Amino acid sequence: MTTDPVPLGDLSDLADREMRCFPDIGPHGVLVCRIDGRLHAVENNCSHTNWSLAEGRLRGTTLTCPRHGAQFDVRDGSVTAPPATEAIGTFELELSPDETAVHVQIDRSMPSQ
Ligand code: FES
Asked: What's the topology of domain 3-107?
């Protein structure tokens, strides 16, 4: 898999336990979450029926889908509660020490929106 860095900009203002959606990146968008000071990036697409997770609830490392309540661990995308059975995609982040220049690695073969 070949990836390209896509700039997300300055995330230094993203508070702990908050998430921000970048809807125009990749086929479904990217959600970036901050948990205990660390940033995590997941695909904005519930694996149950391809629903946006941007309006979901983030508690600890668990992201709950707003449609039917499936839960995912944003650290690795794994399913932690049904009805979803497949993990959601995760992305590598590259960031400057002050987080004013954050890039997400996107697979070049993924179709864009
Ligand atoms: S679409 Fe997410 S749980 Fe059904």
From this structure: Rieske Iron-sulfur Protein (2.102.10)
Is the CB of residue 27 below 6 angstroms from any atom belonging to ligand 1? Answer: no
For the chain, domain boundaries: 3-107
86 secondary structure, DSSP code: S
| pLDDT confidence of residue 108 | 60
- Mean pLDDT over 69-97 rounds to 95
| Res 110: pLDDT | 55
Closest among 47, 54, 49, 48 to 25, alpha carbons compared: 54
Cα(55) to ligand 1 centroid in Å equals 12
**Nearest ligand 1 atom, CA 69:** 3
